[in-house]
Amino acid sequence: MAFKLNCFISQSHKLPYLAFPSIGSPRSPKFYMASTLKSGSKEVQNLKKPFMPHQQVHVQVTHSVPAHKIEIFKSLEDWVGQNILVHLNPVEKCWQPQDFLPDPASDGFEEQVKELRERAKEIPDDCLVVLVGDMITEEALPTYQTMLNTLDGVRDETGASLTPWAIWTREWTAEENRHGDLLNKYLYLSGRVDMRQIEKTIQYLIGSGMDPQMENSPYHGFIYTSFQERATFISHGNTARLAKEHGDIKLAQICGTIASDEKRHETAYTKTVEKLFEIDPDETVMAFADMMRKKISMPAHLMYDGHDDNLFDHFSAVAQRLGVYTAKDYADILEFLVGRWKVDKLTGLSAEGQKAQDYVCRLPPRIRRLEERAQVRAKEAATIPFSWIFDRKVKL
Ligand SMILES: [Fe+2]
Ligand SMILES: [Fe+2]
């Protein structure tokens, strides 16, 4: 199957979420959003600003996996039914956001909200920024379900398809939906954040989509999701630790519970890729190397709040400084996946496959060296306002 090359102007920011510093991203012409609001309003002025100032031009490849390889995914359906769907929790056994929130139907509701707000007062602004960024990332879930359904051979062809791949995607989405819902309600009740600005950011983000360069390839797609689930497991886990340090045990419990969902999802996706390595090591290792060469861009890399043209970079910098998700984590995840899939032990690869194997196995120490050099070069951190917290300033 011939694959298509589309010239594409991406709105990518120059840094993947807390990935190691990217070098020399090309900048291209700006493009502007048309205003749909009445003139004279404050919002119109904002919309006249460039929507995304840092854009990369790259060639967008679509449908890169040939038809006979896609057949492999159809042949795996029974295996997915028996080995992957077991990592979903039945709805009746799942936690729900309401389990962690004041009950609006109870007499004690107001008192419970008061207690929640008292606890939330102790959370510093930089932690709030990270929490909001994580919540916004979760809230862009429609984009992630769309992404999974771009993947050839595994997409949900009808919206209610009974293939195990499609069931997985829908039920995974349904589980994920609780994450943004819970964090959103918590932050709303806390009274510490500018909900309207946050809601605008979510709307912008869902409208922008994402550009992880997966080429409609399920090989690329499941490598990406393996990486991402582990990344979210790490960042929610670290946010839980911070919440605990600042005395908000309930919030720590919320973030910890979400982290454990992410861990379960990571198990399912890494198991899927493990299977791909077993049946098609060449294609899988080349997809792994390809995704790593492109760098794993984080799901919310196109975020924008109508004010800050570098919002994602700024959010990432705060998360890096607080140790919620760092360049070291990026290298650690890669190293973990190389070990999990025993990439260094693969044998019988083609010459190209061996090159890819060599590349991914040598990459973690290279990333660490780059990170160390970047740290040495790091200048005095700036302090900037975040609209999410009423323009209070936070150190990057
Ligand atoms: Fe999530
Ligand atoms: Fe997840």
UniProtKB/TrEMBL annotation:
A Pfam family annotated for this UniProt entry: FA_desaturase_2
Pathway named in the protein's UniProt entry: Lipid metabolism; fatty acid metabolism
PROSITE patterns in the record: FATTY_ACID_DESATUR_2 (PS00574)
Listed GO biological process terms: defense response; fatty acid biosynthetic process
Chain positions recorded as Fe cation 1 binding sites: 138, 176, 179, 262
Keywords attached to this entry: Chloroplast, Fatty acid biosynthesis, Fatty acid metabolism, Iron, Lipid biosynthesis, Lipid metabolism, Metal-binding, Oxidoreductase, Plastid, Transit peptide
SUPFAM superfamilies associated with the record: Ferritin-like
InterPro entries per record: FADS-2_CS, Fatty_acid_desaturase-2, Ferritin-like_SF, RNR-like
Record's GO cellular component terms: chloroplast stroma
Principal location: plastid
Cofactor(s) this protein cannot do without: Fe(2+); Fe cation
Keyword Plastid: yes
Any one GO molecular-function label of the UniProt entry: stearoyl-CoA 9-desaturase activity
EC numbers for this chain: 1.14.19.-
Entry note: cofactor: Binds 2 Fe(2+) ions per subunit.
Annotated residues for binding of Fe cation 2: 176, 229, 262, 265
Assembly, per entry: Homodimer.
Function: Introduction of a cis double bond between carbons of the acyl chain.
Family: Belongs to the fatty acid desaturase type 2 family.
Protein name, per record: Acyl-[acyl-carrier-protein] desaturase
Source species: Hevea brasiliensis (Para rubber tree)
